[in-house]
Design a protein that fits this description.
Length: 263
């Protein structure tokens, strides 16, 4: 068995001191307990801000605090979120059925399949179904945007100007424009219609800061929806893909007999 990773890793590069926190309790302390003293940094905002705006993942200070506070409102409690389970189970069942129709020996790209499945769940639970968005185009736009983040982050570390070209920059900019426009239109339409669909757009529209009563503007609503859609989509899909990898390495009674992953 390999050794456990260090809870805190120090790196000095390009004249800058950096600390990477790997211990969950230290992450909690940094992001919550010391949120006023520690900022997200310009690299994160430059890398993700084109799509996520000033949402929970990129905001600092008072603006971050009130967005975090709003997510502690009663509508985000566990029992309310259980209403999303049927859509999640239906998407999982659809993926299972699609796999079972494939001939023996077929190769399945688990990473892509999990991206597809989690996006289906997002569309149904957050955006009231496929009628409200071109799901295929939105999924491609998220992929185009996320694939460029390594380049943008690297250029940020070098303090390169924002106009500096990099591979795929045109696709990245187009993806950001499409995603913010599409999600912004959904948010505005929900507000105008007073929809009672119960999806995440409605939850955010009806949520208010428990202390001040402040609610989200359309811009803030777009920022936070895209934080769920873009950031949550990728991380959940990757987590599921790694779960399949672990199942293939440790088969048991509950594992599908046909599950064999190529690495």
């Amino acid at each position: 068995m390999g050794s456990l990773p260090a809870p805190l890793v120090h790196v000095e590069a390009l004249g800058r001191q950096r600390f990477y926190i790997l211990e969950p309790s230290l992450i909690q302390e940094a992001l919550v307990g010391n949120a006023d003293a520690l900022t997200k940094g310009p690299e994160l905002r430059r890398t993700l801000g084109a799509v996520l705006g000033d949402g929970l993942l990129t905001a600092d200070g008072a603006h971050w605090r009130w967005q975090r506070q709003i997510r502690r409102a009663p509508i985000f409690r566990h029992e309310r979120l259980l209403g999303f389970l049927p859509a999640m189970l239906a998407a999982a069942a659809e993926t299972r059925d699609r796999w079972l129709t494939k001939p023996d020996g077929s190769v399945i790209d688990i990473g892509h399949e999990m991206m597809h499945t989690t996006f289906d769940i997002i569309v149904e639970t957050m955006l009231s179904g496929r009628a409200n968005i071109d799901a295929a185009r939105a999924e491609r736009a998220i992929t185009d945007f996320l694939e460029s983040t390594g380049w943008v982050f690297a250029l940020s570390l070098l303090n390169a100007p924002s106009w500096m070209p990099y591979p795929g920059k045109g696709r990245t900019n187009a993806a950001a424009r499409y995603l913010r426009g599409a999600i912004g239109r959904i948010a505005a339409a929900h507000r105008a219609a007073g929809s009672g669909s119960g999806d995440l757009v409605d939850l955010l529209l009806n949520a208010a800061d428990p202390e001040t009563g402040r609610t989200m503007t359309d811009e803030e609503l777009t920022d936070n929806l895209l934080t769920f859609v873009a950031a949550g989509h990728e991380t959940t899909a990757l987590g599921l893909a790694w779960t399949f990898d672990l199942l293939s390495r440790n088969p048991g009674p509950a594992s599908a007999p046909w599950l064999r992953l190529r690495r």
